[in-house]
């Protein structure tokens, strides 16, 4: 039986090496220093705790990346005398999607670690790029390197599933 770590590495290698299977992510080298534009139906501030909770059709935009969810908790720090808070992490819950111009990630929850520039999505994860897709339980996406690591689903014997299109057969190609 292949260990969970080896499965994760194998999927990462497949994403990067499969010829024509999945193109390079446009989220690679995403500028995480761009402002976060957040909108929602409701906001609850908990300043002493350093949290802001957005609820209802939450939409977060940062450059070419969009995150949507039912609820979003923003964790931030403010130093005494400084008015601008420093956002450390975003925790999204419920119907989570992360999209760019060429791919989408979907799951039940997500954590965007702003400092580490790492997005982790979990629960019924679907990673789609064009007509290709991967399914698993937990996906880590490094916004600097573009490396994606996907862990298998417990309900599927801990395995990752993928569907990849192959080039169409041209006239004169042999079988």
Task: Describe this entry's structure for a reader.
With 175 residues, this protein is mostly beta strands. The protein is built from one helix and ten strands. The chain has one domain (4-163): lipopolysaccharide transport protein A fold (Sandwich), CATH 2.60.450. The chain has one helix at residues 4-17, and strands spanning 37-39, 42-46, 51-62, 65-77, 86-99, 103-113, 118-129, 132-142, 148-151, 161-163. The radius of gyration is 18 Å and the shape is elongated. The chain starts with a helix and ends in a 12-residue tail after the last strand. Residues 1-24 have low confidence and may be disordered.
What is this structure's SSE topology?
Layout: H1 4-17, E1 37-39, E2 42-46, E3 51-62, E4 65-77, E5 86-99, E6 103-113, E7 118-129, E8 132-142, E9 148-151, E10 161-163
Antiparallel strand pairs: 1-3, 2-3, 3-4, 4-5, 5-6, 6-7, 7-8, 8-9, 8-10
Proportion in β-strands: over 45%
At CATH's second level, what is the architecture? Answer: Sandwich
Write down the overall mean pLDDT.
81
Rg (CA only)? 18 Å
Assembly context of the chains: single chain
CATH class: Mainly Beta
Number of domains: 1
How would you summarize what this structure contains?
With 175 residues, this protein is mainly beta.
Tag the structure with descriptive keywords:
disordered N terminus; ten-stranded antiparallel β-sheet; lipopolysaccharide transport protein A fold; 175 residues; 10 strands; mainly beta
């Amino acid at each position: 039986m292949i260990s969970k770590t080896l499965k994760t590495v194998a999927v990462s290698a497949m994403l990067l090496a499969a010829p024509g299977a999945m193109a390079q992510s446009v989220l690679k080298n995403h500028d995480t220093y761009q402002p976060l534009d957040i909108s929602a139906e409701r906001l609850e501030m908990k300043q002493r705790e350093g949290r802001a909770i957005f609820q209802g059709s939450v939409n977060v935009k940062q450059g070419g990346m969009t995150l949507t969810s039912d609820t979003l908790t923003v964790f931030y720090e403010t130093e005494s005398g400084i008015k601008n808070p420093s956002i450390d992490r975003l925790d999204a819950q419920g119907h989570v999607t992360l999209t760019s111009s060429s791919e989408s990630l979907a799951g039940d929850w997500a954590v965007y670690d702003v400092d580490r520039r790492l997005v982790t999505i979990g629960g019924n994860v679907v990673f789609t790029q064009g007509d290709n897709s991967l399914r698993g339980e937990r996906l880590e996406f490094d916004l600097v390197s573009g490396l994606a690591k996907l862990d298998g689903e417990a309900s599927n014997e801990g395995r990752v599933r993928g569907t990849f299109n192959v080039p169409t057969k041209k006239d004169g190609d042999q079988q």
